[in-house]
């Protein structure tokens, strides 16, 4: 299945390695895709445990639907890719969300996961 075909899934599962325990930690999170990259936003910024984990160990796993992918995570710091990531997430979730996501899309920490697609 092509990665882009998974873009309509409502969320993905991100698995990081705990920076203290070394254990696998999985969260459910909103996402957007621009192949071969998955974009995420952390409303808690760099303080979110999942972000702290991937900063310590950037090798992660992303599951979308029944498909799982290994990838390397990185925080986006300005530029066209960051702007595109924010816009992709806003466009995906705003139409079906009751509140206004503009502030969330502007202030959350953007994270990219570059997937290794077989």
UniProtKB/TrEMBL annotation:
Pfam families associated with the record: F420H2_quin_red (PF04075)
Gene3D superfamilies registered for this protein in UniProt: Electron Transport, Fmn-binding Protein, Chain A
Superkingdom of origin organism: Bacteria
One function term, GO molecular function aspect: oxidoreductase activity
Name of the protein this chain belongs to: Nitroreductase family deazaflavin-dependent oxidoreductase
Organism whose genome encodes this protein: Candidatus Nephthysia bennettiae
């Amino acid at each position: 299945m092509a990665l882009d075909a998974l873009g309509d899934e409502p969320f993905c599962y991100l698995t990081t390695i705990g920076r203290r325990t070394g254990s696998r930690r999985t969260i459910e999170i909103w996402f957007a895709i621009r192949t071969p990259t998955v974009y995420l936003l952390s409303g808690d910024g760099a303080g979110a445990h999942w972000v702290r984990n991937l900063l310590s160990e950037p090798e992660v796993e992303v599951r979308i639907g029944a498909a799982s992918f290994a990838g390397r995570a990185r925080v986006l710091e300005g530029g066209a890719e960051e702007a595109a990531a924010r816009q992709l997430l806003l466009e995906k979730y705003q139409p079906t969300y009751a509140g206004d996501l503009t502030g969330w899309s502007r202030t959350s920490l953007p994270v990219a996961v570059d997937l290794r697609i077989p």
